[in-house]
Design brief:
It contains two helices and nine strands. The chain is of the alpha+beta class and 142 residues long. The chain folds into two domains: 76 residues, Immunoglobulin-like (Sandwich), CATH 2.60.40; 32 residues, no CATH class. The longest helix is centred in the first third of the chain and has 18 residues. The radius of gyration is 25 Å and the shape is elongated. The relative contact order is 0.16.
Length: 142
């Protein structure tokens, strides 16, 4: 009878221990990702107190549902560690950031910064465009 109680007690301990382990899971909110792209990560983890994200480009976060900006195209392995006390569970997902379809140029002016997307049809007088933007005369789409 004593051996039987030890087995039951041990099974209860294992069951309680397993129930407290966190579950790590997340999804990426966007389907098509093109550089530069701000990506929202939706945390679906369970039984976790804290989180540690690795975005695959050297950046990390401890937010529950972080956003992260990828400025370069490429493959990135996203890692989420869900932590509950001393217990940690990890999930990973690879995302692809595609090359941009146009050429992006950031123009810094005294009125603020703007991101301009240049196409083959963009006028060849880019210097004049930058000057007009800097002087506040141009505030529309190209």
């Amino acid at each position: 009878m004593r051996n039987r109680l030890q087995v039951i007690g041990m099974a209860s301990f294992c069951l309680i221990w397993a129930c407290n382990r966190p579950v790590s899971r997340f999804v990426v909110s966007q389907e098509k990702l093109e550089a530069p792209s701000t990506v929202k990560f939706v945390n679906q983890s369970e039984k976790a107190e804290t989180f540690l994200w690795d975005f695959g480009d050297g950046s990390t976060s401890d937010d529950i549902n972080p956003t992260h900006r990828y400025v370069q195209s490429g493959s990135y392995m996203i890692t989420l560690n869900a932590i509950n006390g001393k217990k940690t569970r990890k999930s990973e997902q690879m995302i692809e950031i595609e090359k941009p379809t146009g050429s992006l140029v950031e123009i810094q002016t005294s009125f603020g910064n703007m991101l301009v997307k240049l196409y083959d049809e963009t006028p060849l007088h880019q210097e004049n465009l930058i000057k007009l933007s800097d002087e506040g005369f141009f505030d529309d789409l190209l």
